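The material for today's practical consists of a large collection of protein records. Read left to right, the backbone structure tokens trace the chain's path through space. An example says more than a description, so a record of this kind follows:
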Amino acid sequence: RPLTTLSGAAAVSLAVYVVGAAFLPVFTTDAKAPSQFDLGSCFPLARGFEFALGMATCLAWRRWVRPAELSTALWTAVEAVAIVGALLWLFLCVPPLVRGADGALFVWLRACGSCGVFAVLIAALAAGRGRFGRALSFRPLVALGGASFAFYMTHMIVMRALRFHFGWGPGAISALTLSLALAFLLHIAVETPLRERL
């Protein structure tokens, strides 16, 4: 029941933002004190709508997008519209929206205000039947996609560890290289075998 799930997740997320706005500052310099930004960025219930939207997008893709009988040219046009729409949103709409917002709306826009645009973009490209989608099926890109969750889980740890031990010296290239190496190691040695067992 995607609409019921989406509505419920949206209500819970909204409740978290409302409660946060009532009791917490937007930001805080005290590392031990929570803020609205911490709540919106890290608290799972605040991000539940995005999670439900991802599941609903997958369901919609399976039911309606993937079975659609379109020519390669038409699929390419659909993909192009989704890509251009996402770029316009990110570069023209998001900056003034974030600058003009405050409180809970600011926190929501910063944390997940683009989730709907990305849901459309993913649904348009996932079938891989247009030229843009086919370009993304290039094997190194697929491998990066496979290791993306492990990369997400390791990159912040790597950046903070490098900064702690070496200061700002090593820089972004070292952090990226080490994070990618760890991500592929975890993906191959942990994630893939456990997924097969499950």
User: Anything to note?
Assistant: The first helix runs from residue 2 to 23.
